[in-house]
Amino acid sequence: MTRTNNPLQFGITVGGRSFDSAVALCKAAEDAGFTWAAFTDRPPEPSLEGWTEATAVGMVTKKIIITHSTLNVPFRNPALLAKMAASLEKIIGEGRVRLTLGAGGVAQPHHYTSYGIPFGEPSERFAGVRDAVAIMRGLWANETFSYEGKVYSVTDASIGVRPASGSIPVWIGARMPGMMKYSGRAGDGWIRNGGWPASIEELQGYIQLLEEGAQAAGRDPMTVRRMINGSAFIGEVKADDPQAPNLGGSAAQILEIIEQHRNEGVDAFQVRFPEDTLMEQVQRFGEEIIAKVS
Q: Is 141 helix (H, G, I), strand (E, B) or coil?
């Protein structure tokens, strides 16, 4: 495991909130130096639909990248998703769309079955992610594209709109060994599904699998971005608090935690802040953390 040379980047978790609140948060994050805003994608929950909300926010912000954590493949046909992503990038600007894909949260199978959407075994959903990535990249790169997969297939398909940048970055949400190695083989980036790793040793295990997958595919492991997501708060934090934020304490303490994880190969952090001090924390994080490591 090696520290990457990638510049550190930070994203913000938008979560379930009103549209006006989401816009205000994303504009504040944009001004504070956050690179991306991540929306939720759990349709049965009492929140705005993730793709619709992300698109609307993308229209009223200027530079922040629009993504999700994660956009679950079983909910959408990958060929149509390829066109949705390319269309949004064409409208809001080159480089402002990223697809962060997942196979579907194992803790919420009813999110799919209640909608009549099949929720297969892990191996089937993993195959669906592989198919989806192959189909989307094929459609972005070609006028027409055919692909026969285990879960998804296309025949002489065309989306009519292609990304201005040629392709759109695809990050993979994973923590199981097979998906971790696949993230290394095929992902532009990786996000640790399920929140902050329980220990540095756990993180090391993930990144080892990621790098093994990249090396097996003949890729430079350093080209795959590595992100973990969790809670953050600049201020006094009780050491014995089981609910203490992952990036918590003084700015100096937070920078030390970031450096520790950076030394293990992490080069991106996605954070959420307490609601009662949200805007203040976003601004402080930009000034006291992001500005210090940029």
A: helix
